[in-house]
Amino acid sequence: MVDQKTPKKQGTAASREDRLKAALKANMARRKAQAKARAQQDEEQTGKSERDD
What we know:
Elements: H1 10-46
């Protein structure tokens, strides 16, 4: 007899994709918040924003 691997379920790929989407969304939100905080910190240090040029 030949041992066959059990086929993967369709739901497994979909759930993995959903988890990756959620992780990417969280990562992007975190990066956006960090960029906003850095811009605000730079603005406080220089006394003006880049838009004031």
